[in-house]
């Protein structure tokens, strides 16, 4: 049975699931397992192009300044003409560029995946619920696998719960309120060792306004550049945008030297200008995503009575519209 374009459903509040809104956004979502993306990207590369389990420890400039020397944890030293740090929120490359580690948002995200051998029985919908201090969502990945998430603001006492998967599961279930039984069952059916819970971090947007994230032949992409709260579901999507634009900006510089021979200063300058162009294109898009994600999440997860009223009675439909509109971004083609 074909997996058709989804209907996005969102409950205005967990306490009243019957007040849910439902809107159709044809073709607006495509769900792909990240492992499959990695495999698809890697399959056409020459053998041994990718070096797995290689932690970057430090970056050194070659004497002439045109190459970077990458020191790995296993003692290996790599020489590179171009260095793009896609090394996440703890990015060594971002630190080398002078950026601070992304800040804690004061919120946590707990996630899980459960597989039903005989099928999960869900419609092709993204179910989305908000309540006081909690966002909860359930999304079928295919006919058998369901992904779910819960974001919440832990108190000092609740911070210790993350260390105990059994208590964490009980805690999440206690916060779900009157969600539909089928949605609650997804959490109940998830094995405790499949729970993943981490504090949410985001890059303060003014860092990208005030600092350069491109220097010479070095830049960053993905979470290293624009770590954001997951409230728009655009973290991985924006990283793919980075990749397309980065490839396009570097294509001219690298295509002039197809044999990979070092051209020293001339080639270095072309690479530098290509990365500057990339940074210019990605700066404000990244800032917009970071701000929008933070604001949407704060509204949806608010504990304030006034904000909860506005969210449940006025803003619910608008928030869904924001999510769909901001994801509708054309980053162009590789050519």
TrEMBL record:
<feature type="domain" description="FAD-binding">
    <location>
        <begin position="69"/>
        <end position="255"/>
    </location>
</feature>
<keyword id="KW-0560">Oxidoreductase</keyword>
<dbReference type="InterPro" id="IPR036188">
    <property type="entry name" value="FAD/NAD-bd_sf"/>
</dbReference>
<dbReference type="InterPro" id="IPR044560">
    <property type="entry name" value="MOase"/>
</dbReference>
<dbReference type="Pfam" id="PF01494">
    <property type="entry name" value="FAD_binding_3"/>
</dbReference>
<dbReference type="InterPro" id="IPR002938">
    <property type="entry name" value="FAD-bd"/>
</dbReference>
<protein>
    <submittedName>
        <fullName>Monooxygenase 2-like isoform X2</fullName>
    </submittedName>
</protein>
<keyword id="KW-0503">Monooxygenase</keyword>
<comment type="similarity">
    <text>Belongs to the 3-hydroxybenzoate 6-hydroxylase family.</text>
</comment>
């Amino acid at each position: 049975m074909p997996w058709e374009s989804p209907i996005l459903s969102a409950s205005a509040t967990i306490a009243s699931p019957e007040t849910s809104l439902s809107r159709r956004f044809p073709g607006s979502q495509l769900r792909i397992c990240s492992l499959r993306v990695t495999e698809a990207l890697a399959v056409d590369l020459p053998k041994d192009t990718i070096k797995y389990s290689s932690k970057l420890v430090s970056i050194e400039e070659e004497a002439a300044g045109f190459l970077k020397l990458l020191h790995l944890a296993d003692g290996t030293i790599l020489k590179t003409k171009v260095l793009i740090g896609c090394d996440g929120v703890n990015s060594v490359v971002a630190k080398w560029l002078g950026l601070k580690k992304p800040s804690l948002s004061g919120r946590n995200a707990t996630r899980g995946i459960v597989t039903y051998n005989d099928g999960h029985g869900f419609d092709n919908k993204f179910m989305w619920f908000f309540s006081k201090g909690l966002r909860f969502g359930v999304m079928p990945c295919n006919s058998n696998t369901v992904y779910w998430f819960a974001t919440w603001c832990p108190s000092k006492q609740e911070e210790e719960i993350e260390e105990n998967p059994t208590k964490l599961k009980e805690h999440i279930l206690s916060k779900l309120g009157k969600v539909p039984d089928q949605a609650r069952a997804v959490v109940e059916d998830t094995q405790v060792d499949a729970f993943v819970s981490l504090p949410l971090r985001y890059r303060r947007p003014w860092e990208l306004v005030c600092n350069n994230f491109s220097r010479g032949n070095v830049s960053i992409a993905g979470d290293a550049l624009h770590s954001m709260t997951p409230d728009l579901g655009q973290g991985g999507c924006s990283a793919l945008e980075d990749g397309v634009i980065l490839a396009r900006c570097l294509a001219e510089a690298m295509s002039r030297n197809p044999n990979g021979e070092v051209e020293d200063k001339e080639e270095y300058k072309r690479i530098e200008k290509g990365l500057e162009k990339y940074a210019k294109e990605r700066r404000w898009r990244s800032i917009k995503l970071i701000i929008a994600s933070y604001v949407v999440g704060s509204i949806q997860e608010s504990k304030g009575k006034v904000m909860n009223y506005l969210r449940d009675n006025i803003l619910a439909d608008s928030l869904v519209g924001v999510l769909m509109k901001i994801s509708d971004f054309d980053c162009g083609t590789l050519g």
